[in-house]
Specification:
mainly alpha
Length: 76
């Protein structure tokens, strides 16, 4: 997985982001992340964690990220 490509996903979900959508080139990166390490998506949504790094995450955008990137998530 290319971590730099995932940084674009992070930029998308940050407060004040001007990104209206993600380029399709980033969809496989998110799919691989969800398949191999789904806990990272939960980590991204944890305001206590991201807040400690002074990253303002817009929860609605983060929750919509899989849908935006057409990535299926299994909620086991």
């Amino acid at each position: 997985m290319n971590v730099l490509n995932m940084s674009v996903c992070l930029m998308y979900v940050q407060g004040g982001s001007k990104l209206g959508k993600l380029d399709k080139a980033y969809y496989p990166e998110l799919a691989e992340l969800v398949e191999s390490n789904p806990q990272y998506l939960c980590y991204l949504l944890d305001k206590n964690t991201t807040g400690s790094y002074e990253i303002d995450i817009v929860t609605k955008r983060a929750l919509n990220l899989p849908s935006v990137c057409h990535v299926a998530i299994s909620y086991n």
